Amino acid sequence: MKSVAMRRAGAVLILMLTFAGTLPTGAWAGSRDFLWKTVSTCLDPSAVDYCGQCSTPRAEKGCAGHAACGETLQVLAEANNYVAFADRKMCGCPEGYFHALAIPRAKVTGVEDPHRPEGIWCFAWELGRRRIGDETVMALVVNPRLYRSQDQLHVHVVRLKPDARQRFTKLPQARVPNLDQVWRTAREKAEAAKFTDYGVLVASSPDGGYLVVVDPVSPEKEFTEAYCR
């Protein structure tokens, strides 16, 4: 397996090469608050001056000048505390490819935030179960602070790469029976491994329950089908 240093260098290069294509053009392009502004201004289409205030309006609203993929918000699931929508990495991808983001409606920066919500894992897993179907190929991923482009917590709902399970066996991990134990287990494993920054990957466990893996680099880039091409 690659050394952590080599994986860090590779992940940084990939992030630099692809970042420009993951966010829309416009006033918020490149902003680390884009996701938070989307959640806080684009979910209620009945809001005053909705089309003027929201840079990526809901597709069903039909705001003028917003028609292409990446210019509208494709909402996939909503709950009182969370929302999920299609990641822009899905634009131009063939039918069957899936990459969504599950996001809290409250301001939560990321894996390091002490207010990170436990329930987001169940919300994201249910979305993946409905949209992907085969739970053995599903993954939920949160990237480390240094390997993310946004400072609003977002769980990637994606498929594992075919060889992912074989490759992440050497990373710190544990099996948990319930998804509400993910954050605590990840923190404990990261502290034991002396990771000052870490990402979290959740997959189904062959023995039942869920596998929680911590990675000091980017589990999204390393182990999941983050891009269709």
Automatic annotation (TrEMBL):
Gene3D superfamilies for the chain: HIT family - CDH-like (3.30.428.30)
GO CC entries: plasma membrane
Catalysed conversion reaction: a CDP-1,2-diacyl-sn-glycerol + H2O = a 1,2-diacyl-sn-glycero-3-phosphate + CMP + 2 H(+)
EC number in record: 3.6.1.26
Keyword Lipid biosynthesis: yes
Keyword vocabulary terms for this entry: Cell membrane, Hydrolase, Lipid biosynthesis, Lipid metabolism, Membrane, Phospholipid biosynthesis, Phospholipid metabolism, Transmembrane, Transmembrane helix
Domain of life of the source: Bacteria
Main location: membrane
Compartments where found: Cell membrane
GO molecular function: CDP-diacylglycerol diphosphatase activity
Bilayer topology: Single-pass membrane protein
Protein name (record): CDP-diacylglycerol pyrophosphatase
